[in-house]
Amino acid sequence: MTKPRGRDWIVVALVGLGALAVLAPFYLVVVNSFKSPTDYATSGALALPQALDFTGLGRFWERVNFPEKVWNSIFISGVVAVLAVLISMLNAFAIGIGRVKYRTSIVLLFLLANLLPQEALLYPLYYMFKEVGLYDNVWSVIIIFVVVQAAFGTYLLSAVYGTFPKEVLEAASLDGASRWQILWRVVFPISRPTLSVLLIFFFIWTWNEFLIPLTFLASNANQTVPVAISVLQGDRLMDVTTTSASALLGIIPTLIFFLVFQRTLTRGITAGAVK
Fold it and tell me: What are the Cα distances from residue 10, in Å, to 15, 19, 87, 120, 257?
């Protein structure tokens, strides 16, 4: 076993500093969430709370109806993740395995769709959903994010399916399997780890989205967690402890989701690396 060299210690030190930079804001949020306004004023932001105070958490919970906002975010993110993965798989199967004409140009179009800034899409989408009566409806946000996420998923999966072993597909065809059966009985089981990774990322990305939900979900009952936090943090009646509590409650659902599906994410990335 070789001894660590000076360069290795420098890398470790840089990684440690990076970890501290990431954990410092989280520490401030957690510590100040359990302080009273008086405790915060006397001890400052960095000190531990003298006594646990749940006033800020309770105040934020009641003022924004937090369970309602969590359900909105879970519903939108879950539906988007499932539909985007399904559409991505179907598109990629047609492009990568079905070998449709001009597949390179089609994949390029999907890539360009991901490069468009959200700000450029707001006005045409706003006008369109106003005309069809879907403005201030969660399905407007779901449709937008399904298209956006599926464009990325199609681009990624097309490259994966393009390298799919032809021998496996030919063997399934010789056994009499239709294209639909090849997709669900051959391609889907083998690519399940990659699809699981996409599902997790799509859910988290959609959960953290802010601009489009803020624009298209005007009523309080349809707001998602990030929008509710930002709107309430702009209230002059908010104190630092309640603001920290809102940030903590906004982090907890995604943290739980990540911890629950951590092994699925790890297995998916590892399987992709091995293949």
Answer: 9, 14, 45, 43, 34
Distance CA 31, CA 93 (A): 49
Beta carbons within 8 Å of 137's beta carbon, 6+ residues apart: 129, 216, 222
The pTM for the full model equals 0.85
Q: Which two tokens stand for residue 149?
A: 């996420």
| CA trace torsion 233, 237, 242, 244 (10° rounding) | 40
pLDDT value at 250 more than 90: no
**Distance from C-alpha of 220 to C-alpha of 233, rounded to nearest angstrom:** 15
**pLDDT score recorded for residue 274:** 39
Residue 8 scores a pLDDT above 80: no
Q: Which of 112-126, 172-186, 232-246 has the lowest mean pLDDT?
A: 232-246
The span from the CA of 94 to the CA of 89, in Å, is 9
Distance CA 97, CA 199 (A): 21
Q: Which residues, including other chains, have CB under 8 Å from residue 175's CB and lie 6 or more apart?
A: none
Q: Which amino acid does the sequence have at 104?
A: T
- CA contacts within 13 A on the Cβ side of 194: 22
| Amino acid identity at 124 | P
Q: Confirm if 224 and 76 have CB atoms less than 8 A apart.
A: yes
Burial class of residue 198, CB neighbours in 10 A (0-12, 13-18, 19+): buried
C-alpha 143/C-alpha 131 separation (Å) is: 15
| Residues 176, 170: Cα–Cα separation, whole Å | 10
Residue type, 121: L
